[in-house]
């Protein structure tokens, strides 16, 4: 039994005239590649194809390159943060105002004053394992 043809509203006719259907076939591998490309752009296939036709895809490719560079920079930044955390620092309260005073090897008087004072202050400190061996 044939379907009854549904009458379209004038707005539907105008929409279809302004937005015609386009269809085409791709090989399975090409379709998978297209899906992968579109997935990376967070758009639909129709939006991506439309952007491609309007010449906006190059800008999207540039955004992807910038995102990749940003990921590399974030990774490097994370490595630097880890290294910075491992730098020797001491945080002690100021004897006058009570705010934190941060002492680190980059201070000018580290070798002459700070480190010798810290070494003397902690001369009796030791690892728990070292105490057990004695």
Total count of domains: 2
Q: Give a quick account of the main beta sheet: strands, pairing sense, barrel closure.
A: 2 strands, antiparallel
Strand order of the largest sheet: 1-2
How many strands appear in the DSSP assignment?
A: 2
In short:
The protein has 134 residues and is mainly α. The protein is built from six helices and two strands. It folds into two domains: 24-85; 90-133, no CATH class.
Structural write-up:
It is rod-shaped, with a radius of gyration of 33 Å. The chain has a two-stranded antiparallel ribbon with strand order 1-2. The chain has 134 residues and is mainly alpha-helical. The chain has two domains: 62 residues; 44 residues, no CATH class. It is built from six helices and two strands. 60% of the residues lie in helices and 6% in strands.
Looking at this protein, list some descriptive labels:
single chain, 134 residues, mainly alpha, 2 domains, two-stranded antiparallel ribbon, rod-shaped
Could you outline the blueprint of secondary structure elements for this entry?
Blueprint: H1 10-18, H2 28-41, H3 45-54, H4 57-85, E1 90-93, E2 100-103, H5 110-121, H6 128-133
């Amino acid at each position: 039994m044939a379907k009854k043809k549904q009458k379209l509203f004038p707005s539907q006719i105008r929409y279809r005239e302004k937005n015609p259907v386009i269809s085409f076939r791709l090989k399975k591998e090409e379709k998978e590649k297209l899906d992968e490309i579109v997935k990376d752009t967070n758009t639909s296939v129709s939006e991506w194809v439309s952007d491609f036709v309007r010449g906006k895809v190059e800008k999207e490719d540039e955004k992807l390159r910038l995102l990749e560079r940003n990921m590399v920079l974030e990774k490097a930044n994370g490595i630097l943060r880890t290294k910075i955390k491992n730098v020797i620092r001491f945080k002690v309260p100021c004897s006058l105002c009570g705010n934190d005073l941060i002492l680190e090897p980059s201070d000018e008087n580290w070798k002459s004053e700070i480190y010798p004072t810290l070494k003397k202050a902690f001369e009796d400190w030791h690892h728990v394992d070292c105490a057990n061996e004695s």
